[in-house]
Amino acid sequence: MAGAFRLEDVAPWGRNRVEYTAFFDLAGLLPHQRILDCAAGPSSFTAEMSRLDHLVVAADPLYRLPKETIKQRIAATRGPMMAGVRAAADRFVWDDYRSPEALEATRLSAMKHFLEDYEEGRGAGATSTRPCRRCPSTTAPSIWRFARTSCSSTPKPMTSTST
User: How many folded domains does the chain comprise?
Assistant: First the structure.
């Protein structure tokens, strides 16, 4: 079918804080509110929000992998992903990105930022490889404990995003 865009498997393709904020209506979040980002992938959201004093934990099985392997997977995803975007360009609304090239630049920038922060984020407990199957209210207890202890010793409301 012309204009079809089909992914056969999970593809590491990250987004940034501005995109998450728009997607999930996060503009009203206050600093120090806790955020659990389930299925976060290689997005720069956690790094960006942490720098704005938000307490964020990103959960994704991808984080079991070393940085170089993730970087290789992103590179391997880029060509097929953009070929699919271009093939189905008439099915996208381009108000925010204007073109496939601008979308690609936004994604690559987010993933570059993610990779630059990856080791520091892992060391600080900002990422988890534990599965996060149902967010937010029935989040797996191990993720909840991890997020609670990694973010703060004082219980606070938790906001959830998913990619």
Answer: 1
